Amino acid sequence: MTDDLKEKYGKFQAVILENNPTANLERIRAAFDYAHNAHSKQLRKDGNPYIVHPLAAAEIVAEMGLDEEAIMAALLHDVVEDTNTTLEEISKRFGASVAAIVDGVTKLSRVQFTSKEEQQVENLRKMLMAMAKDIRVIIIKMADRLHNMRTTEYQSPEKQAEKALETMEIYAPLAHRLGM
Length: 180
Prior knowledge:
This protein has 180 residues and is mainly α. The chain has a single domain (3-177), classed as Hypothetical protein af1432 (Orthogonal Bundle), CATH 1.10.3210.10. It is built from ten helices and no strands. Helix 2 packs parallel to helix 4.
């Protein structure tokens, strides 16, 4: 692990302890190590190791004071979608609850938001809420989107506009309704 990544992980751990002092840091570290290994050959568009993204999303989740299962799921939120990892592996290693949250986030990632019609946007919001049997799924997806929006300068102008519109029409109203 690079010094920069060690520093980011140290900050992440401090955020966990500040907001959830009873969290099991060993379980969270195991989830980080698993995600880091699973994403080891992937890079972000900015050239950073891919693990920087799930780590940033998990830090946002930790800042919100969510439990260790949510933090672990945030670290693991892209492994099923982007690697050869299965939900069964996540369940065996980290528990059925963490796997269920990862599955929910993965399913939300597959929803395509292309309509600009207000009624369809409202229907999508309802669908998101219905799909999320666990509110932590929505919160992790929000953290995922927030970090992606913070690093949007590495996307094409077209992708930036698409993601910004989707964020304004779907994620911002959901965040507002959730008091985020």
